[in-house]
Amino acid sequence: MSLDEALAEIDARIRPAVTIERVPLRQASGRVLAADLVANVTHPAHDNAAMDGYAVHHADLSPSEPTTLPVTARVAAGHPLDRPLPPGEVARIFTGGVMPEGADTVIMQEDVTDLGDGRVTLPAGVTRGRHVRTAGGDFRTGATILAAGRRLRAPDVALAASAGHAYVPVFERVRVGVFSTGDEVFEPGTDLPPGGLYDGNRYGMMALVEAMGAEVTDLGHLPDDPDRITRALDDAADAHHLLLTSGGVSVGGEDHVRDVVAALGSLHFWKLAIKPGKPTALGLIRETAFAGLPGNPVSALVTCLLVVRPVVQRLAGLPVTIPRRYAVPAGFSHTKSGNRREFLRGWIEDTPDGPVVRVFHSQDSAMIRSMGAAAGLVDVPAERATVAPGEPVAYLPFSELLS
User: Fold this and answer.
1) Is the pTM of this model over 0.85?
2) Helix, strand, or coil here: 374?
């Protein structure tokens, strides 16, 4: 199955699985807004000064020569003047201060001459409304300020607070349980026997899924034992929206995960026409989504970014988004060994002739160092056989995949 067909399957088969909860703003960053958020207040609530200076009646100013007027009031932010400002008078005002009734213009202090006797001289030719923020210029009560389905960022949280919200409705986090499999896999920090390797996949997958906004449960490591795998997946299904495994989905004699999932539920697809990541499976264990990723570390991380990301999006109530690709000249040559769509680990490098994308010297899917060196993926279509230096390629930054 092509990656595009797999994404269409995800969009068609995976449904939002999370409920709605109200959380305080301090817990809202990274959460998905479950309903449109409307403003409880108007912002700014009043006309206010955008600069430190002097609030005046524009009609008192001359268009051609300076004007000298008395300063009869002082207005600081949070301390509005309790009376109108009469014509012929000036109020000293500070940034954020509410414009006195009658005043319509602010002249910043650098342009004003203080005569030292309670009067100031104001310049000629000042525009009406200068340095005044108009009430409601940002938003008004009842206006939609944030749309449902948005993943909240720090500026969104600030906006919600400014609009008077202490709590916001969000979808609960997608609960993801993560296993690794394989008799050769051992926990980091333990003694490594001959033939063993440390479990980088599980930790890498958990970090990626957490970066996608999910709540992750570390379900540990499973041996190549179909009965143990069956019990573990069956026990974990009801407590999670998604179960994620690495290893055990290929065609080896000890690859049991795929058969276990098929027996417990159903498989939507198995095997993708991509490199790395061919043995990738998606299915259901009862009502819980399942994604089985390859055992090679690069394959596991790449398919987590390409396949698990849209699954998490759908479960979280988000639309599946296609991450942006950038056309960049290749700073490498490459010949494909088959007709699969390839994703090469690479990064952008500046040269005297402009930026180019470089790729790691080894694209072996067991070489985890290549993922650490890379900042993104070069997407080489299935029908493209070669890449020559200088030819444009589609570069997919990791930042786009995790935005």
Assistant:
1) no
2) coil
